[in-house]
Write a structure and sequence with these properties.
The radius of gyration is 21 Å and the shape is elongated. Strand 7 and strand 8 form a beta hairpin. By secondary structure, it is an alpha+beta fold. The two termini are about 25 Å apart. Helix content is about 25%, strand content about 40%. Residues about 1-35 and about 250-255 have low confidence and may be disordered.
Length: about 280
């Protein structure tokens, strides 16, 4: 799939003011240096300008010949504690794409990352209960519900709970006094199973569960230039590095928390990075 073509380019990922800031921040990768490090630095600056909180790490794989043609073999973005200006949150994320094709003149003359094709890859998000509740009620999800014809449904953010093997949440259905309590499990790549939590479910409970199963199994979100499609989900305990010093770095420096997190894997198509006013 094409991310842009000559004559109809993907908009620049850096505004004029951001380009100036990038130029002043590049240091030893300034001037005419065309390298993977230049692309990494620009990408990191772009991403930092689009999040309200969190850390950013970027890695770009290139060869000498490839970068001269505007081609990178792949790119990886990692982050911790991300929050967008519009309230999307995650404990951690990792996004990786394959071949990336860039406009070389724009990269050299303007230090701008203009895509000439749309790279594809995978993204993995880790959500806490609070993060997932915010995700369910974000305007992007509301628009996804409307596109799938679920105009009567409304997620309840405070209802998100993680058990040992399922995700629990409630859905308010317009015209009915009580929300529908549901539990969701992943039963394979691209498929979830959602069932009512009620002991004796009503017809509405069963109806909403079936509609939500189809919705999440075919979930597609347009993050203002980055298209995300559901792949799979799983629950695990959060893994983090020890904060206290240790004589040697080893597997014992990675400890398992009792905090449950939801790991959401998605397929990714990057037509452009989100704008500065990303949701």
């Amino acid at each position: 799939r094409k991310g842009s073509i000559r004559g109809s380019p993907v908009p620049s990922l850096l505004s004029a003011s951001r380009r100036v800031a990038a130029s002043e921040s590049l240091g030893d990768v300034g001037g005419g240096d065309l390298s993977g490090r230049l692309v990494e630095t620009l990408l990191e600056l772009v991403l930092r300008s689009r999040i309200a909180k969190g850390t950013v790490q970027t890695q770009v794989s290139t060869t000498a010949g490839g970068i001269l043609r505007g081609q990178c073999e792949g790119a990886v973005v990692r982050g911790e504690g991300w929050e967008s200006p519009g309230g999307l949150m995650c404990r951690s994320l990792e996004l990786s794409v394959g071949k990336v094709c860039l406009d070389v003149p724009a990269l050299i003359s303007r230090r701008s990352l203009d895509l000439t094709e749309a790279p594809e890859g995978m993204a993995a998000f880790q959500f806490t209960e609070r993060d997932f509740g915010a995700f369910l009620c974000h305007p992007l999800m509301k628009r996804a519900l409307i596109r799938r014809g679920l105009v009567l449904a409304k997620f309840i953010a405070s209802s998100a709970r993680f058990t040992q093997d399922s995700v629990e949440f409630d859905v308010a259905w317009k015209g009915y006094p009580n929300p529908v309590a549901l539990e969701m499990k992943c039963v394979g790549e691209g498929t979830v199973q959602i069932q009512p939590r009620a002991t004796n479910p009503s017809q509405l409970d069963d109806k909403v569960a079936k509609r939500m199963t189809r919705f999440f199994s075919g979930l597609e979100i347009d993050l203002q230039g980055v298209l995300l499609r559901f792949r799979r989900l799983k629950l695990s305990n959060y893994m983090r590095e020890r904060t206290e010093p240790s004589p040697e770095k080893s597997s014992s420096d990675i400890i398992e928390s009792h905090d449950r997190v939801l790991e959401l894997d998605l397929k990714v198509i990057v037509n452009s990075l989100p704008p500065l006013d990303v949701a």
